[in-house]
Amino acid sequence: MDLSLPPRFESATFVSYVPTTTSQAEACRAVQAFVDTAPWDDSWMRTIWNRHAGTVRQRGLYLVGPVGTGKTHLMAAAYQALHPATPCGFVHSRTLFQQTASPQAVARSIADQCTLLCLDEVEIDDPANEARLVHTLQALDDVGVYLLASSNVRPEAFAKTNVGPTRFEHFLRNAFGQRYALQPVEGPDYRRDRAVQHNQTGTIWVGPPDATRERLDAACQTHDTALRLSFDALRERSRTTAHDALVDELVAPDCLAVEDVALDSTDDALRLLRIVDALYTHDAAPVLYMTARTPPDDWFAPEQFAGLAQAIAKKFTRTVSRLHALCTVEHVARASPKQPTKQR
């Protein structure tokens, strides 16, 4: 299991984190305090320092808040501040779900590589994943790995998704108790802020197919290599191709163009979510172009669903946020008028 920090987050530091709300400022101080108190350090000097400072010995922090508030930035900043003096690992929760070894074996493997694990985007979309996550977190605690985790959902909110939150909530609230602190990180989505618009290289054209296709044609012609797929074709490839192999195929050209995006099911949402996550964190991602009849915010809106589908739709808001970081959204009313042919 690769526990290295993704290249996209290598520039993240506490200094470069700019809080825009009181909650974000408090979260930044909490993560810095967690790093400074070094609860994993059992040296007598550190123990005396912690007692003098009146600090509580914590096993971890759980950063929770909406998308785009800088939770991952804060985790990456902690990683940068500690590693390699204190070995750190960084992994997405989905990677834990994909492991075939037992939770105990996974925990031992992680413990061999790091003292602190940064677990990004804790999310649960089915009871099997819930059980695996809880067992893995318990196993990590048993082998002495400290945890810095992020999530868009508070533990008690899982009850609303009918996923079966009892074990997860019990673990966070009772098993860790005072040693596992819940830290809110509230605020607006920075990826939608005008200040980050200049970092966007791709475009999502929204409007009638003939109009958006014209823009897509022109954009693809500006690149040496382009992979152009309909959304239906991309969906089919995601079903028939292993995820890692699919990502390798998608990042190979200079630009990736996906036409006529339309999500018909939770399966569609999850497949696009995984692809966008991979493109967002990849160090050599292509320029991304998309076309659709509706803007990304309307592709899979949470208010349209209930139960498990609503939980997935809420998770899809992160995908929309990341699409805003990768692309500008341009509304196109109609295609350019065709020039009349000259009569001989």
Automatic annotation (TrEMBL):
<dbReference type="InterPro" id="IPR027417">
    <property type="entry name" value="P-loop_NTPase"/>
</dbReference>
<keyword id="KW-0547">Nucleotide-binding</keyword>
<dbReference type="InterPro" id="IPR005654">
    <property type="entry name" value="ATPase_AFG1-like"/>
</dbReference>
<dbReference type="GO" id="GO:0005524">
    <property type="term" value="F:ATP binding"/>
</dbReference>
<dbReference type="GO" id="GO:0005737">
    <property type="term" value="C:cytoplasm"/>
</dbReference>
<protein>
    <submittedName>
        <fullName>Cell division protein ZapE</fullName>
    </submittedName>
</protein>
<dbReference type="GO" id="GO:0051301">
    <property type="term" value="P:cell division"/>
</dbReference>
<keyword id="KW-0132">Cell division</keyword>
<keyword id="KW-0067">ATP-binding</keyword>
<dbReference type="Pfam" id="PF03969">
    <property type="entry name" value="AFG1_ATPase"/>
</dbReference>
<keyword id="KW-0131">Cell cycle</keyword>
<dbReference type="GO" id="GO:0016887">
    <property type="term" value="F:ATP hydrolysis activity"/>
</dbReference>
